[in-house]
């Protein structure tokens, strides 16, 4: 299957894997969103997966106040006084988890991949994404206990016109819980 065709399903499974690890008791729901205009977010975490042939930008768009309940539920914290920095650190790890699962899945077909560390950006920075040659993008709304907490997105940019083949893993093929050394 071509990467451009498989990417949406791979990204969705990456989000589901992360949420399943963060909230194993459920209470979360993701759904594709076509139009992000009007979604109340003011910050985003930005990560990349790169090879010589393509670049994938991964984003988590959020309002830190809306994510505080997600943070409390995932870490089983009842304290009312939670610092914004603690929530940001948690969201950086959520972004790392989503990006890492996608990178692992891509790595079964594409051996030389790089992954960035998360960066915090203002929402206005995404007005400039059009300077890249984005050939495919997608967004998913994430709800926890029926409340919107963030949306996750990807932007796929090819370095040339070569189509990239990938092998999609079934759920039974995925190994988890193993420590990777870099």
Give an overview in words.
- By secondary structure, this protein is α+β, with helices and mostly antiparallel strands.
- It has a single domain (3-34, 41-163), classed as CheC-like (Chemotaxis protein chec), CATH 3.40.1550.
- It contains 3 helices and 7 strands; from the N terminus they run H-E-E-E-H-H-E-E-E-E.
- Strands 1, 2, 3, 4, 5, 6 and 7 form a 7-stranded antiparallel sheet that branches.
- Helix 1 (3-22) packs across helix 3 (84-107) and helix 2 (64-75) crosses helix 3.
- The mean pLDDT is 88.
Short description:
The protein is an alpha+beta fold. The protein has helices at 3-22, 64-75, 84-107, and strands at residues 28-32, 43-50, 54-62, 114-115, 119-122, 134-144, 147-158.
Topology, pairings included?
Layout: H1 3-22, E1 28-32, E2 43-50, E3 54-62, H2 64-75, H3 84-107, E4 114-115, E5 119-122, E6 134-144, E7 147-158
Antiparallel strand pairs: 1-6, 2-3, 2-4, 2-5, 3-7, 6-7
Helix pairs in contact: 1-3, 2-3
Q: Name the CATH superfamily classification.
A: CheC-like
Strand and helix order: HEEEHHEEEE
Q: What quaternary form is this?
A: single chain
By DSSP, the count of extended strands is 7
- Low-confidence segments, given as residue ranges, are none
The tally of structural domains comes to: 1
What is the CATH topology?
A: Chemotaxis protein chec
Percent of residues in helices: 25-40%
The description of the largest β-sheet is:
7 strands, antiparallel
| DSSP summary: helix tally | 3
User: What coarse outline follows from CA principal-axis ratios?
Assistant: globular
Q: Could you say what the CATH architecture is? A: 3-Layer(aba) Sandwich
Structural class: alpha+beta
How far do the termini sit from each other?
28 Å
Alpha carbon gyration radius: 16 Å
| Percent of sequence in beta strands | 25-35%
> What's the mean pLDDT score?
88
CATH class identity: Alpha Beta
């Amino acid at each position: 299957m071509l990467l451009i065709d498989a990417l949406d399903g791979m990204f969705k499974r990456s989000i589901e894997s992360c949420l399943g690890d963060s909230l194993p008791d459920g209470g979360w729901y993701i759904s594709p969103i076509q139009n992000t205009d009007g979604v109340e977010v003011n910050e985003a975490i930005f990560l990349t997966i790169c090879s010589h042939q393509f670049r994938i930008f991964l984003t988590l768009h959020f309002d830190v106040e809306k994510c505080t309940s997600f943070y409390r539920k995932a870490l089983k914290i009842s304290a009312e006084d939670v610092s914004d920095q603690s929530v940001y650190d948690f969201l950086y790890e959520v972004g790392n988890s989503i990006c890492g699962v996608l990178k692992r899945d891509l790595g079964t077909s594409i051996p030389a991949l790089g992954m960035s560390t998360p960066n915090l950006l203002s929402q206005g920075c995404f007005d400039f994404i059009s300077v890249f040659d984005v050939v495919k993008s997608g967004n998913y709304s994430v709800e926890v206990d029926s409340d919107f907490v963030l949306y996750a997105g990807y932007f796929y940019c090819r370095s040339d016109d070569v189509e990239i083949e990938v092998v999609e893993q079934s759920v039974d093929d995925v190994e988890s819980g193993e420590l990777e050394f870099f």
